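[job 4417] fold queue: 2 targets
>>> target A
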Amino acid sequence: MLLPLILLPVLLALAGANPAQLPHIQHLTLKSLEQVPVEIQPLIIDGYDVQGVDNVPYLVSLSLTKATYTHLCGGCIIAKRWIVTAAHCVEDLRKFNDGDVLGTPIYAGVVNRSNVTAAQVRYVDFASTHRGFTGEAGSDNIALLHVSESFEYSARVQAIALPDIEDDYSGKTAAVYGWGLTDADGDEYSKELKYAFAPLLNSTACKELLPADAPLTKQQVCSQVKTCYGDGGTPLIYWPITGPAELVGLGSWSYMPCGFASRPTAYTSVTAYVGWIYQVIAAYYQLN
């Protein structure tokens, strides 16, 4: 287990789905990038309220706009100036902001999004999405963001530990945190941070619960926690008996509507990309 160094949305909307049709595979993000709800934002289905921000101090919220706080995706602090998130979240930011990710606000130390006055807000000055990310559900859905000012570590804001490249979390219980929809068909969203937990599935067990043509790869892990719109880039976290929490995965994709037929959600396996994370960071400091 590596010490902390370095954010899941791959579901876009399947609004008004016809039950007679096969569910679509989508990225976890906002239902529409053209109509952004300011007051209403998403949460984990069948989840529980997080009691305090110090329970998950590494979680951050990426704002879709620079003008006002509007949650788009989650992410994780891995170092004082580094965030890891899903690549599709960064691409959504680019699409909505005319190709410009720089200046994106990141909010840390938040549980209830209706009150962000105590949040530490930092701004993106560098972004790197994996070259293997094509926008498809089976591609390399991971990205790194660097902020112009360091986060100040406290009980509310800290970095999470990265896994070792040899770590295997299959069968271990992991928790997911996020602000996504609590009901796939609902129109009322809680502002409170939610969490849920379930054992992690190995690739064989996961494939048995998915269609034969599911775009599952060895670079992904599965959990039967039901994530939904707004849970992109959300962290999948393992708590060992001793030692710090470890970042296992980042919310990537699922079948729509959310939680359809209890099919698992796929997460980008951070273990598979630890080498890439360190390479990007090293290259950044060589060039800056």
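>>> target B
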Amino acid sequence: MAKGKPLTVPERRTNDVFDEESVAVRSRWRNLAAFWVLGLCNNYGYVVMLSAAHDILESKFGATTDTPMEFKNGTMTVVNTTGIRSCNTLSTGAILLADILPSLVVKIITPFLPFYVHARLATCVLFSAAGFLVVSLSTTEWLAILGVVITSLSSGLGEVTLLSYSHQYPKQVIATWSSGTGGAGIIGALSYAALTTWLSNEDTLLLMLIVPIIQGITFWLILVHPPQASIPITKNGIDSQEHIIEVPRKSFREKITLVPGLLKYMIPLGLVYLFEYFINQGLYELIEFDGIWLTHAEQYRWLQVDYQIGVFISRSSVNLVTIDKIWIMAVLQFVNVIILLFETLYYYMPSIWLVFAFVLWEGLLGGGAYVNTFYRMSTEIPRADRKISLGIATMSDAIGIAMAGWLSMPVHNAICRLPQPSRVGS
């Protein structure tokens, strides 16, 4: 083509199509990356806050009881004077529920409220920042717990909102969102542990204010928001006939009628989380190997890291492996409960590496159940019902975690009162 020669109509159309496709490819990768970062930022505070709040409570307020105490596994524990076992103080359970119940309440209520996505995300960013500030600057115990509550509200609102919002994007964003939430476990735990080696607990939390800032930048500057009332077009024409007709907003009663049809997704996921967090909150601390290269406190921390690695791997795997029968993972997770419960009672495992293997498997099952549930929903539920359905389903894991919190504490305390057994083979 000669220089300066005007383009013909076919040439202009070809260039327009090429430009549109290149823009679409760039937008696709931006959205995938944005949902990964949003998943990371949304769960980061939730992961960090529980151990951070325990540290703040211990360092600022300490223990006022005359009962023998020791700092163990990130919490103040009551030393059993008979030399048998040790148990957590009541504050541990209080902060644990403070980190779970507000998120559950938000997940139950929010799907039935108007969907103002920008207002919701602004609330998430502000609450996340406020949580870090309140816990780090707290001068009383109730203020530290309030900071945990605020962070939990931010996490719960962010999850239900962004999963609902994902219905306007390709289903692959579910995979990157889930991978980001899994990455929050590893990155959150490691960054907090690393920073507190150089900084105080308070200064570490203040430095983490960068996380809600990144969350806001990602949502408003990196994520490509679909225009209102847009009709997606593909190479083969209109993407779906559902986009031609504007679907009216559902009433509260219409939203409630969707719940029975979602139980096939919600019940298995809730059971997986019930069993998973029963293990995490009730059993980890009671597993102890004497005379190895790790102290009991170090064993506990590495079990947590091991679990988070499993969660991250499985939450990042849905594009490679998809699982339709979530109930199978619930059954397998219950088997983990039995195996590890008997380990706390009888100390029958000959090596800690066997425990690490089961804990990694536990994390793989938990993360796999989460990502496959929402991925299935994004492909099986009609588009008109998808946004509200994804929002409603987020409450199932929170219900499972809350039930595990209530159940694990009495079981944990009951086992603490039992004699500590001798390790089989020792």
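[job 4417] complete. Note on B: Strands lie at 69-72, 75-78, 87-88, 233-234, 237-238.
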